[in-house]
Design brief:
The complex is a heterodimer. In chain A, 19% of the residues lie in helices and 29% in strands. Chain A is α+β, with helices and mostly antiparallel strands. In chain A, the strands form two sheets. A six-stranded antiparallel beta sheet of chain A has the order 1-2-3-9-5-6, with no helix packed on it. In chain A, strands 8-7-4-10 form a four-stranded mixed beta sheet, with no helix packed on it. Chain B folds into two domains: 1-30; 34-179, Immunoglobulin-like (Sandwich). The N and C termini of chain B lie far apart (77 Å). The chains are: A alpha+beta, B alpha+beta.
Chain lengths: 192, 187
């Protein structure tokens, strides 16, 4: 009886620890070799055959096709530069430049990876649509209400993620965060 | 007391194994992964244009709305596949994924250096079966080896502005992926 109770206890601990760790790994998007620049993180290796088991599991669970490394690199940001989660009711400003790439796109998704409905049907920008300053830098306002300049509507959702994808770029597995890879700063301008 | 602590420690160790096992098995048991989602709408060995992602519906999550996209779900068990994709004015890419949605190769219009991206997809075994002389004379043929007999080819063309989307769509619409009837007899 003691043996039975003991093994049952050990098995329950195993199930809680094992499945709990799997759940956490999948919801937090854990994978090896992240490239983090400011608020932005990319996993260049996830777009190759060297993708680790965590990346493979998360790809299968989300149901997306990862950006292949020969195609480009996808950066995502779910928090601002101070680490606060992005809130669709606030005005958030992206300012700066991107690493060299033939094209880039910026897209806003909800946490499930769906586009967010808005009145002007704008879900993102491409590098050609952006209005820039004379020095090539740009400013994009991610906000629930219309703004002058490059306005990316949030639709007022509570949480969202931004995805900045660089296409045909030299950024890859061996890239280290540094001056050659500048990413736009993400700052909250105002919050109701 | 010590007995229970040891049992808890043993359980935690076993939990580590459970964790690794579930992570490794998950891709093989997933029913909502990109391949399974697309398998419902995309017939095998032919190019299927994907609808543009919209807030209410999207073929799969985290699609880039600036692109016109199509997929060719392939099955190489009956022979290699020929793929040709005309490039659009802005940016065109072709990415290859295994059955488990792992990208193993990608090429874009600039790397291809032509107006049409043309290549052949085959398994390693089929590549090895190719007569050697053919392999040499075909130096300008681009051959891609698939690690799995089935998988996905994602064909995508960028529309840098919304007004250019029809052009990107028409470039994608002319893409073809076709099975060669006889893998070895082709001259």
């Amino acid at each position: 009886m003691r043996l039975l109770l003991g093994s049952l206890f050990a098995l329950v601990v195993a199930a809680v620890v094992g499945l709990g760790a799997t759940y956490l790994a999948l919801t937090r998007g854990a994978a090896f070799g992240p490239l983090t620049i400011g608020s932005w993180t990319a996993w260049p290796k996830t777009g190759t055959v060297d993708a680790d088991p965590y990346a493979r599991a998360s790809i299968a669970r989300i149901g997306r096709l990862p950006t292949a490394l020969g195609d480009g690199v996808a950066f995502t940001a779910s928090a601002d530069d101070n680490g606060r989660p992005l809130d669709g009711r606030c005005d958030v400003v992206l300012a700066g430049v991107t690493p060299a790439a033939r094209f880039w796109t910026l897209t806003l998704y909800n946490l499930d990876g769906e586009l967010v409905a808005n009145s002007i049907k704008r879900y993102g920008f491409t590098s050609q649509e952006i209005v820039r300053h004379a020095d090539g830098s740009f400013e994009i306002v991610v906000a629930p209400r219309a703004n002058a300049g490059n306005w990316l509507p949030t639709g007022g959702v509570e949480r969202y993620v931004l995805s900045l994808r660089l296409y045909d770029t030299a950024v890859g597995v061996s890239t280290k965060a540094g001056r050659e890879v500048p990413m736009p700063a993400v700052n909250v301008r105002s919050c109701p | 007391m010590i007995r229970w602590l040891l049992l808890a420690l043993g359980g935690a160790l076993l939990g580590g194994i459970v964790h690794l096992a579930t992570i490794i098995i998950l891709p093989r048991t997933a029913t909502q992964d990109a391949y399974s989602r697309l398998a419902r709408s995309a017939p095998v060995n032919t190019v299927t244009a994907l609808p543009a992602p919209a807030p209410e519906s999207a073929p799969m999550p985290f699609m880039d709305p600036a692109f016109a996209s199509a997929v060719c779900r392939y099955d190489l068990s009956k022979g290699p596949l020929k793929l040709s994709v005309p490039v659009s004015p802005a940016y065109t890419s072709v990415s290859f994924y295994t059955r488990y949605d792992i990208a193993y190769y990608a090429i874009n219009d600039r790397a291809a250096g032509r107006r049409v991206i043309e290549l052949e997809l085959m398994t390693t075994a089929q590549h090895n079966q190719m007569p050697e002389d053919e392999d040499i004379t075909a130096a300008d043929r681009l051959i891609v080896e698939s690690p799995t007999p089935t998988g996905l080819i994602a064909i995508r063309a960028l529309a840098p502005e919304p007004g250019l989307m029809p052009m990107a769509r028409s470039a994608i619409a002319a893409a073809k992926c076709t099975q060669e009837d006889e893998p070895k007899a082709s001259q």
